[in-house]
Amino acid sequence: MLLLAIDTCDARGGVSLLRDNDLLASASHTVPEDYSSWLLPAAEGVLAQANVRMTDLDGFGVAAGPGSFTGVRIGLTTVKGWAEVYKKPIAAVSRLEAVAAQAQNGTCYVAASLDAQRGQVFGAVYQRNLEGLVRLGDEMVIGPGKFVVAAAELANGERITWLSTDPDCLENVPEWQERAKLHEAIEPVPGFLAPMIARMAAAALAAGGQTDALHLDANYVRRSDAEIFWKGSAHAR
Fold first, then answer.
1. Is residue 10 part of a domain?
2. Residues 109 and 149 grouped into a single domain
3. For residue 112, what are the β-bridge partners?
4. Nearest of 177, 137, 176 to residue 154 by alpha carbon
5. Vertex 230 angle, CA 225 and 232, to 5°
6. How many domains does the chain have?
7. 137-193 pLDDT, tens per residue?
8. Which among 57, 101, 111 is positioned nearest to 79, based on CA atoms?
9. Structural domain includes residue 18
10. Which stretch of DSSP H or E encloses residue 171?
11. Which of 175, 128, 177, 109 minimizes the C-alpha distance to 147?
C-alpha cells in the first residue's frame, strides 16, 4: 500500500509518504508559514522525493484532531479534495491514539496527552486488549491535574503508561506527584506525528476502515472561540 498522510492540527505537523511499513519521505512543518500556503508545496515535495505521483497512491491518511480549529479544517479540506479528484479512500486518525500507539511499557492502561494551550491538555485513556488499544470514555480537553485524576479513575487504580508530546504539562501539577510515588513516568513522544499517522492510516485501510470525502469529519474536542463567544452573547441578550 502506498499512502500519503498529513497532520496540520498544530504547529508541529507535517506530511509523510509510506509504502507498506516503509517511510519513503517526510516533510515537517518547522517554519512560521501557515498551512494554507505550506501544505501543498510540502506534499508535492514529498512525492517528488520518492518519484511518486498522486495517481500512484492507494489512499490518504489525515489527522482528524484534536487540535486547532483552523489547522484541522485545512487538513481535512485538503484530503477531501484529493480524495474526490483522485478517487482514493481516506483513513482518519486521532492524534491522541497516534501518541498512545507508541507506548513501550506493557501496562494494561495507557494515557495519552497533548498540550491544548490555555492551561489545558487534550487527553484520552486506553486499555490494551488482544487487538490493540481500546479507548475508555471520550477524548477530553481538561486541566492537566484533572486529567491525571480522571485517568487514574478510568484505570481503576492500576498502573498506567503515560505518553505525551508535552510532558511538562502534567509533570508540573501537584496531582502528578501521586503517580510519581508509584514510580510512573511520562514517556516523551515527538510532536511530529505524521509518520505514525501514516502507519495507522495504512493499517486502517488494510482492515477496511476507510471513509470518503463526504463522511470525513473533524474531531475538535474543544468548542471554537466563535461558538463560545456567540453563545455567551446570546445568553447576555
1. yes
2. yes
3. 124, 163
4. 137
5. 95
6. 2
7. 999 999 999 999 999 999 999 999 999 999 999 999 999 999 999 999 999 999 999
8. 57
9. yes
10. helix 168-171
11. 175
